[in-house]
Fold this sequence. Notes:
The structure is a homodimer. Helices cover 42% and strands 11% of the residues of chain A. By secondary structure, chain A is α/β, with parallel strands linked by helices. In chain A, the strands form 2 sheets. Chain A has a 4-stranded parallel sheet with strand order 4-3-5-6. In chain A, strands 1-2 form a two-stranded antiparallel ribbon. In chain A, strand 1 and strand 2 form a beta hairpin. In chain A, helix 1 packs across helix 2. The longest helix of chain A is centred in the N-terminal third of the chain and has 18 residues. Chains A and B meet through helix 1, helix 2, helix 3, strand 2 and helix 4 of A and helix 1, helix 2, helix 3, strand 2 and helix 4 of B. Chains A, B: One of its GO terms (biological process) is DNA repair. Chains A, B: Belongs to the RecR family.
Amino acid sequence: MASGGPEIEQLIQLMARLPGFGPRSARRAVLQLIKKKEQLMIPLSAALDRAVVAVRTCEVCGNIDTASPCTICADPRRDSGILIVVEDVADLWALERAGVGQVKYHVLGGVLSPLDGVGPDDLTVDALVARAHEFREIVLAVNATVEGQTTAHYITDRLTGSGLKVTRLAHGVPVGGELDYLDEGTLSQALKARTEI
Amino acid sequence: MASGGPEIEQLIQLMARLPGFGPRSARRAVLQLIKKKEQLMIPLSAALDRAVVAVRTCEVCGNIDTASPCTICADPRRDSGILIVVEDVADLWALERAGVGQVKYHVLGGVLSPLDGVGPDDLTVDALVARAHEFREIVLAVNATVEGQTTAHYITDRLTGSGLKVTRLAHGVPVGGELDYLDEGTLSQALKARTEI
């Protein structure tokens, strides 16, 4: 296996631990890095060094940013009064890419999962309940899985009596999706929630 | 798009240029890196820094290593007299993983391709011809593509008269492969080159 010295082998092993990479594709990526040393390897090395120093978790919402409070929490234009609750930072970024508007976020850090030993104390539910009163609507944008829905129910319970409007994302046909490939549950929900044209 | 500060965005853009990654998977990988800062991001950053300093191309064979001549060229046990000619460092590493024995290598750095403007001077053919006399057999392990075979013919021509034995890899059914999925060319070659059991 030692075709290229211990430094290269170690780099391959670390790259192979990234999601989407295995030992073979990590080796290809490292070869590409080495071949494009000036254009890719040195800039990537520098970018990683900078990120290691700069990256932190926002103490308000749980977003990952180079500032805390993060750019979103510190943005004074985000005053729509809507707080979107997501499981993970990746979901927050996906909603931002979708351009959902001048909203704020709360990252739970996971979902309730008794089987995996994840209880309410492992998530940022207390922090959510503590800051919820600053908003007029809480949108529960958790995944449409069993764990996600259980978590949504739990949060709704905790917010009962606060007088807040609690909503969830709509179920339906994905834009560009073909009916033929959709599961029955989604189709049935999409029919129930049909809208007039 | 700026969900996480310029340092994070730049890291994502650089990761997206690795083979096997696109913008979406690079974002996922960067999130994973940030979440596993101690176990993954800091070690990867350090490994990249070390590799940037240490990695070089072997001046003898074209392999990528942290020494030049590389570990393979400097290995005194590799005295079988067999030189395997490959297109790319990735091919060299693949052959090493296959454990082909105590051989040496020569990396061409590509294949002849008039359409892409790649001529003999862009490859290390001259260096190959210069060192070929140190060996008793030259194995042309170029890819079984049109360009690969053209390159193999060109090299064979250049070595004509040197008295060297020039060979190529066998064509046939891949180990574990199903006949049904193989192309006709491979099947016909495999039948022609059949061996007695």
